[in-house]
Amino acid sequence: MRQYVQICRTYRVENKVRQETLCNLGRLENLTEDGSIDTMIEGLAKFSERYFDRIHGQGASSTVSMKWTKEFGSVYLFRKIWDKIGLGRLLQKLMNDAEVASCYDEAIFAMVLNRLMDPNSKYRLFKKWVQTVEGLSDIKLHHYYRALDFLSERKEQIENQLYGRLTDLMSLDVDIVFYDTTSSYFEGEHADEEIAGYGFSKDHRGDRKQVVIGLLMTKQGIPIEHQVFPGNMHDTKTFSLVIEDIKKRYPIDKVILVGDRGMVSEKNLEQIKDLGMQYIVGVKLRKSKKAQELLSIRGPYKKVRENLKVKSKQMDGEQYVLCYNPDAEARDRLTRDLVLEKLQDKLEKLGPSGLVKNRAYSKFLTVEKASAKIDEVKVAEDAKFDGKYAIRTNTNLSDEEVALAYKELWRVEQAFRNLKTGLELRPMYHRNESRIRGHILVCFLALVLESYLAYKLKETGCRKSVKDVLYDVSQIKASLITVNGEDQMVRTELQGEANAAFVAIGTQAPPRVLVNTHNTK
C-alpha cells in the first residue's frame, strides 16, 4: 500500500472540525529513503522555539558551546523601521545621484542607531560599540565623518522626501505645526565661528559657544524639519526664518503655526498673516495689558479637561483665550507661600539689605527709607495669575480647540528633552560647520524613528511608554553557539513588552534561529 505525506491545517466551522490540505510532499517511502523528511523537519524546527530545543537538544550526547553574545533586538527593530519609512532607499538614491562609492547609508544607520541605543563619540562608536552589536556592517572610521558631510549637504532633500514617505504611511498633515527652539553647546574653543557663538543658553552654559536648533513637529508628534542657527540668534529671528521656510517647502492652503511665548514678536505675526497662514501663540500674561483684560471677564470657565478650563474675548480682530489649571494654581500658591515665609524670616534677621535686588523677593516688598515690609496688595495682585496663562490666535477655532492645540506644544519640548538626554545631542565635539550640521541631522533622524515607534505603539493600544518598550527590546541578544560541531546563531527569549514593538510596526519578532551573515570570529 502506498502512503503519501501531506501538510494539513485543522480548523473549526460552527463547532465542526474541517481540514484543508496546504501541500503534498510526495510518497513516504521516497522521503524516508533519501532523508528528505528529516531535512524538512530540521528546517522547520528552526522556526519553532518549542521544537528547536528538542532537536538540538539537551541530551547527554549533545555538545554545546557559546562563542559570543551581542546586542540584537534594537538593531533588528530599527532596521525594520528604517526600511519601512524608506530611509535606506532614499540614501541609496542620493548616493547614486552623487556617484558616491562609499557605504554612507550604513554609516548613517549605525550613527542613528548609536544615538538610540548608547550614544557615543564617532571614534568610540567605531572603535568599540559596533563590535558589541550584531547586524552592522564593517565600516572605516573616515566613512562616519564623511557621512556627516554628506548629510549636511543633502539635509533639505532628506527631510522633504522623508516627509512625503511619512505622509503616505501615516496620513501626516501640516495644518497645525508646532515650533520651538533649544540650544546646544560645544566643548572646547575651536568650533566654527560662522555658526557657533555666545548667546542665551537653555543649557545654562553661558560660558560655552553654542548653536540654536529649531524643531517643527506635526500634531501626531512626528518631527518633520529642523533648522540650525548661529548661537547668538534670538528666538524671534529664528521664528521669522522658519515661517518663510514652511510656506516654501509645504505648498498647502492652510497652516496654523503654534509657538511659545518668548518666540513671537508683532513683526512675526504680521509676517504669518502676510503669507496667508494662521497662528496660535502664547502671551506673557503678566506683561500684556490686553491679555490681562481676560482676568476681569465675569462668569464661569468652560471645562475642556479636568485640569484645563477656558474663557475668551475678541479684541482687535484676534481671539484671546485665558486658560486655567486648578492643579497649577495650587502649586503656584504653595511656591509663593514658601517664598513669603523665607522673605519674612530674612527681613527679621537681616533687614532689607540685599533683598530688594532679589527679584523673587522684591516684587512682594514695599521699601520706605531704610525699612521694608511685605506688601499684602502686591501679594494679592500676584495671586491673580496663579494657574493661569493666555493664548492669542487669529484662527476660527473654538476656545477649546485653541487651548488643546497650544497644550500640544509640550510634544516639541519633550522631543528636545529626548534629544538632550536619551539621544545626547549635547555637548558637541565637532568643529567645522558641516560636521556640526551632520551630527544634528543624525540626532533628528533618530528622533524621527523613535517618534514613529511611539506613534505606532499608541495606535495599537500599548500603554507602556516607548522608553519602557525599547528597554525590553534591548534585552533581545544574539548568540553564536556551536551544537555538535555546527554553528548556529540564536536569539534570546522575548522579555516584557518587546513583542509589542514588532506588532506596532506590522512585522514579526526575529526568528529563534537567525541567519548569520557576518563574520563569526
Q: Kindly estimate the percentage of residues that lie in beta strands according to DSSP.
A: 15-25%
Number of strands: 17
- Average residue pLDDT: 85
Classify the helix fraction into a percent range. Answer: 40-55%
> In which order are the strands of the major sheet placed?
6-5-4-7-8-14-11-10-9
- Individual helix count: 20
Task: Give the C-alpha Rg.
Answer: 30 Å
Class from secondary-structure proportions: alpha+beta
CATH fold title of the domain at 158-302 and 392-432:
Transposase Inhibitor Protein From Tn5, Chain A, domain 1
Report the CATH superfamily of the domain at 158-302 and 392-432.
Transposase Inhibitor Protein From Tn5, Chain A, domain 1
Q: Describe the biggest sheet? A: 9 strands, mixed
> How does the overall form come out from the CA principal axes?
elongated
CATH architecture of the domain at 158-302 and 392-432: Alpha-Beta Complex
CATH class of the domain at 158-302 and 392-432: Alpha Beta
Distance between the termini: 52 Å
Query: Which spans have pLDDT < 50 for at least 5 consecutive residues?
Result: 517-521
InterPro entries: IS1634_transpos, RNaseH-like_sf, Transposase_11
Domain Transposase IS4-like: 177-449
GO molecular function: DNA binding; transposase activity
Organism: Novibacillus thermophilus
Describe the structure.
With 521 residues, the chain is α+β, with helices and mostly antiparallel strands. Among the domains are: 1-45, no CATH class; 158-302 and 392-432, Transposase Inhibitor Protein From Tn5, Chain A, domain 1 (Alpha-Beta Complex), CATH 3.90.350.10; 327-383, no CATH class. It has helices spanning 28-33, 36-45, 49-56, 73-84, 87-97, 104-117, 122-127, 141-153, 155-170, 235-249, 266-274, 289-292, 326-350, 359-362, 376-383, 399-407, 410-420, 433-459, 466-474, 498-504, and strands at residues 4-13, 16-27, 64-71, 176-185, 210-218, 223-230, 256-259, 278-283, 302-305, 308-315, 318-324, 365-368, 371-374, 388-393, 477-483, 486-491, 513-514. It has a 9-stranded mixed β-sheet, sandwiched between helices. The chain has a 4-stranded antiparallel β-sheet with strand order 3-15-16-17. Strand 1 (4-13) and strand 2 form a beta hairpin. Helix 5 (87-97) packs antiparallel against helix 6 and helix 6 crosses helix 8 (141-153). Pfam families: DDE_Tnp_1.
